[in-house]
Design a protein that fits this description.
By secondary structure, the chain is α+β, with helices and mostly antiparallel strands. It is built from 3 helices and 3 strands, in the order ββαααβ. A hairpin with a 6-residue loop joins β1 (12-15) and β2.
Length: 90
Amino acid sequence: MDWDATSAFTPVGLALRGQPAHRIVRTLGDAAYMLLKEWPSDGGEEYVTAVRACVDAISGQIAPEQFWDAFLRAADEAGIAALTVVQRRS
C-alpha cells in the first residue's frame, strides 16, 4: 500500500465551502482523507467511483494517475473548484 504516492500526479488545490475553505491534496492519503472526511456529500456516481479508485490506487491495482482523473471528476460533480498547484523547484 502506498498512501503517500505523489510522483504520478501534480498536487491540486481544492476550494471548499465551510472550514477549512481551501485544501491542497498532494498524496493518495490526502485524497482518501478528503473523500471520507471532508467531502461535501457522499452521494453521486463520480464520488463512488473516486472512492473505489482511491482504494485501488492505494493497493496498487491501478496507477495513481487513473485515480486522479476519477478524483477530479468527483470534485467537478460536487461543485468543488480544483486548481493545479505549481511547485517551485530549488
